């Protein structure tokens, strides 16, 4: 290695999505010297791909909601395998984080009364998703980025980190290279935060952005960390199947939250056949009740299309294996019979 740069910080954050930006903002607010590294350009993180919304029990859409019910939904959706303390903190603090983003400039959709609008989503008992049409992730990144660049931390774009540096058992920095020049760079830091996102890009078809290649998992593993729950890779139930040019593009859960229904090749709504016993008490078992729920009847139960993602994904696969899939290996998602064009354009502009 003939030459290399050296950068020094108190805290080094690797990854510049929502988590990385928020970590950098907080560390800088505590007075630390912070470096934020991203292997692409700032603003191109996978957080942008989160279209449907941000879950928080704001109670704007339904006063019956609270963080305890949100916590229950989260634990139940995770089949009780969750790290319960992490889920509890998330549900307790989610409303505060939404308010924080709004204070920093996030422009959430509003109700007629001027409150933050909330939409339905899979696995949530009440409307809970604060959203910006179907481009919520883009607004979250824009807000964090615009706020973060004024907080005094240094941003290193198009820099790939390939190894964590250690002194004994203590991580003391990171080694990487600049994508444009290939020049090596060493970051020295008292603390290193890994916020590198997931590993969806290891699959041939994925709605994940190209950056999701499991870098953080590999960095941590090679540094001696123990990796847990590696089998818990979530598959979003709805994405584009045909034509090949759009294969893998996410069809936001907001489509089902706004009333979209899943149908098989026979034209039948099949999710009524796949309601687990654990969710039966809160799930519509007839199209009539599901229609009343869509019209706002507070006593009607939620349609089965809004069951948790694992349930919906398995149901779609079962229909395909039974020979009732679409011609190109999927099923059909239809919102045209549930909402008019103006509603779809307003609430789901990208999907329209």
Major sheet: 6 strands, mixed
Q: From the alpha-carbon coordinates, what is the Rg to the nearest angstrom?
A: 22 Å
> CATH top level of the largest domain?
Alpha Beta
Strand arrangement in the largest pleated sheet: 6-2-1-9-8-7
Tell me the domain tally. Answer: 2
Number of helices: 9
Describe the structure.
- With 352 residues, this protein is an alpha/beta fold.
- The protein has 2 domains: 4-222, FAD/NAD(P)-binding domain; 244-347, Alpha-Beta Complex (Flavocytochrome C3, Chain A, domain 1).
- It is built from 9 helices and 11 strands.
- The protein has helices spanning 18-29, 67-77, 84-103, 136-148, 215-222, 254-257, 287-294, 309-321, 341-347; strands at 4-14, 34-37, 54-55, 118-119, 129-130, 154-156, 159-167, 170-178, 184-194, 261-263, 332-334.
- Strands 6-2-1-9-8-7 form a 6-stranded mixed sheet. Strands 3-5-4 form a 3-stranded antiparallel sheet, covered by helices on one side.
- Helix 2 (67-77) packs across helix 3 (84-103).
- It is globular, with a radius of gyration of 22 Å.
Fold topology:
Layout: E1 4-14, H1 18-29, E2 34-37, E3 54-55, H2 67-77, H3 84-103, E4 118-119, E5 129-130, H4 136-148, E6 154-156, E7 159-167, E8 170-178, E9 184-194, H5 215-222, H6 254-257, E10 261-263, H7 287-294, H8 309-321, E11 332-334, H9 341-347
Parallel strand pairs: 1-2, 1-9, 2-6
Antiparallel strand pairs: 3-5, 4-5, 7-8, 8-9, 10-11
């Amino acid at each position: 290695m003939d030459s290399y740069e050296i950068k020094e910080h108190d805290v080094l954050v690797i990854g510049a999505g929502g988590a990385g930006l928020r970590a950098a903002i907080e560390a800088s607010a505590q007075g630390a010297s912070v470096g934020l590294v991203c292997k692409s350009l700032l603003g191109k993180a996978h957080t942008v791909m989160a279209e449907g919304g941000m879950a928080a029990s704001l109670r704007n859409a339904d006063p019956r909601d609270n963080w305890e019910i949100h916590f229950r939904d989260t634990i139940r959706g995770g089949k009780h395998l969750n790290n319960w303390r992490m889920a509890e903190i998330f549900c307790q603090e989610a409303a505060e984080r939404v308010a924080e983003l709004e204070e920093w400039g996030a422009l959430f959709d509003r109700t007629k009364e001027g409150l933050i609008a909330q939409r339905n989503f899979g696995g949530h008992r009440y409307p809970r998703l604060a959203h910006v049409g179907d481009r919520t992730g883009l607004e979250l990144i824009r807000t964090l980025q615009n706020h973060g660049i004024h907080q005094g931390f240094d941003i290193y774009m198009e820099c790939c980190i390939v190894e964590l540096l250690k002194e004994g058992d203590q991580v003391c920095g990171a080694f990487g290279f600049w994508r444009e020049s290939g020049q090596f760079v060493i970051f020295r830091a008292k603390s290193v935060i890994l916020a590198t996102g997931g590993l969806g890009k290891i699959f041939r078809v994925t709605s994940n952005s190209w950056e999701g290649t499991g870098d953080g998992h590999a960095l941590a593993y090679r540094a001696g960390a123990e990796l847990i729950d590696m089998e818990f890779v979530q598959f979003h139930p709805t994405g584009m199947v045909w034509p090949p040019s759009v294969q893998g593009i996410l069809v936001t859960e907001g489509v089902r939250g706004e009333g979209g229904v899943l149908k098989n090749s026979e034209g039948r709504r099949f999710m009524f056949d796949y309601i687990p016993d654990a969710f039966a008490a809160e799930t519509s078992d007839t199209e009539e009740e599901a229609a009343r729920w869509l019209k706002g009847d507070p006593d009607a139960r939620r349609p089965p299309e809004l069951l948790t993602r694992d349930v919906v994904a398995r149901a779609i696969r079962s229909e395909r294996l039974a020979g009732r899939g679409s011609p190109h290996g999927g099923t059909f998602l239809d919102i045209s019979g549930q909402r008019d064009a103006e509603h779809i354009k307003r609430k789901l502009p990208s999907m329209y």
